[in-house]
Amino acid sequence: MPTILLVEDEVTFAETLRYNLEREGYTVIQAIDGVEGLDLARRHNPDLIVLDIMLPRLDGFSVCRILRQESDVPVIMLTARQDEVDRIAGLELGADDYITKPFSLGEFLARLRAILRRSEAHPRISGREVLIAGGIKVDTSSRRAWRDGAELSLAQKEFDLLTCLIRNRGIALTRDLLLERVWGTEFAGDSRTVDVHIRWLREKIEQDPARPRYIQTVRGVGYRFDSVDEPA
Ligand code: CA
Question: Among the four residues 4, 11, 57, 143, which has the most C-beta atoms within 10 Å?
């Protein structure tokens, strides 16, 4: 059975989660702050990490950011705050899911199982990340991408844009956020840069760029990569 690292400083809450996870058959290791969480993640190589955001010593966002530079272990972030900023920030850092407290145990376990299933279906070699969405496959370590098995010839920014969109598939991303993630905060361009690159990217990855299957325009917001794992 998978090993789950639980990083949560609220002891009673953590104990309840631990009890229920163990009852499901999972092995649980526990940390009560971000520094310990990072340490246990490195030493025990868990199959999944449940990571609270508000933690002593090192917050969950920082832990997630550091972890992402080292491994592709699935991460579920726990947040006590409802706002979208948290949600986007959490997912942009590479978290696989987030769940807002308080939550039902049934929902939590269902989402945890779904993520574990997904990670078993697409095994990740340490340090290597392969993203698959519909007919699109991206290997971030070799910086290669394919559509329906045929390799795509992508410019650097097109590749970065595609990776960012797929990592956050199903979520509407603003042009500003894409600019920041792909071009960086130093970049002096405006949001039309994003539109231009999206157009180029669509020409390469879409069968019919005028009627995109993958990259959807979200009116007044930006773009969303559609999760097309299941047939429409
Ligand atoms: Ca906390």
Answer: 4
What distance in Å separates the CA atoms of residue 66 and residue 121, rounded to the nearest whole number? 25
- On whether residue 230 sits in a domain, the answer given is no
The residue behind tokens 């009116």 is 219
Structure tokens at 104: 């039902």
Looking at the structure, tell me whether residues 168 and 116 fall in a common domain.
no
Instruction: Read off the pLDDT of residues 55-100 as tens digits, 9 standing for 90 and up.
Output: 999 999 889 888 887 778 899 989 887 665 566 565 667 788 888 8
Distance 25 CA to ligand 1 centre (A): 25
User: Separation of 28 CA from ligand 1 center, angstroms?
Assistant: 18
Same domain, 102 and 22: yes
Q: Which domain holds residue 46?
A: 3-121
Tell whether 105 and 192 lie within a shared domain. no
**Where residue 19 falls among pLDDT bands split at 50, 70, 90?**
very high
Number of domains in the chain: 2
- pTM of the full structure: 0.54
Residue holding tokens 């609270």? 52
Q: How far is the CA of 53 from the centre of ligand 1 (A)?
A: 6
